[in-house]
Amino acid sequence: MVGGRRILPGCRDPRKPGATAPSCVYLQFLVADNLSLRAALRHISNSDPIMKITPSLLLTCALVAACGGPSQDDGSNGASAATAQPTVTIVSPADGSFQEEKDVEVVLRTTVPIAKAGDMTPDTGHHHLYLDADLGDMTQPIPSVPGSIVHMGDGSQSYTFENVGSGTHRIIAVVADGAHVPLQPPVVDTVEFVVE
Ligand SMILES: [Cu+2]
User: Fold this and answer.
1) Which residue has the higher pLDDT, 115 or 60?
2) Ligand 1 center–CA 89 separation, angstroms
3) Does the pTM of the predicted model rise above 0.70?
4) How far does the centroid of ligand 1 lie from the alpha carbon of residue 129, in Å?
5) How far is residue 151's CA from residue 145's CA, in Å, rounded to a whole number?
6) What is the pLDDT of residues 31-42, one digit of tens each?
7) Using 50, 70 and 90 to split pLDDT, how confident is the model at 154?
8) How far is the CA of 126 from the centre of ligand 1 (A)?
9) Fewest C-beta in 10 Å: which of 73, 126, 129, 132?
10) How far is the CA of 80 from the centre of ligand 1 (A)?
């Protein structure tokens, strides 16, 4: 990496997804010139105005780089994909959308392998939907409330709420295990939409 500006893992400007923080670029430059990380930090903290402006940002970048944090831009790193947190996404209705139909079809997508209710295979689960209902104790089994809290225990990935009233609504999707206890850490997604 001599002379290079290789993007160090974790060196991303949180204010600009995809952009490299200026202080990170500077750190990369110093490291590329074969200064040790500690020497680079000492040098920057003593003399560089960038460090005085964004010390926490630089320190975060330096620590992540030193610890070999997961890369966000290197698609060849299979390990980071394997350890990624499971996610669920409410594909439809889209967040902030307006629905003409009273029957609202909810379409879900998740990285969690779906199993039917009762199947206790580790790291699998089934979908649950909260329509205008708040999440309860996430360590306890999810209750069933007709028209409000729905279990998709058959392993399906879509569900239609019928005759939803006009106005603003919120749907929360939660993936829970075979005993209906939410996975930990929670695998959730939320959208709000308007029925016209
Ligand atoms: Cu359930």
Assistant:
1) 115
2) 17
3) no
4) 9
5) 9
6) 333 334 333 333
7) very high
8) 6
9) 73
10) 29
Q: Ligand 1 centroid to 34 CA: how many Å? A: 55
Between the CA of 178 and the centroid of ligand 1 the distance, in Å, is: 7
Where residue 82 falls among pLDDT bands split at 50, 70, 90? low
The per-residue pLDDT for 100 is 96
Backbone angles phi, psi at 43, to 5 degrees: -65, -45
Domain annotation for the chain: domains and CATH numbers:
22-81 (no CATH), 85-195 (2.60.40.10)
Question: For the chain, give me the number of helices (H) and strands (E)?
Answer: 5, 8
Which residues neighbour ligand 1 (ion) by CB within 5 Å?
151, 180
Distance 30 CA to ligand 1 centre (A): 53
Contact, 7 vs 25, CB < 8 A?
no
Measure Cα distances from 176 to 106, 132, 159 in Å.
Answer: 17, 19, 16
pLDDT for 106-119, tens place per residue? 999 999 999 999 99
Tokens matching residue 43: 């040098």
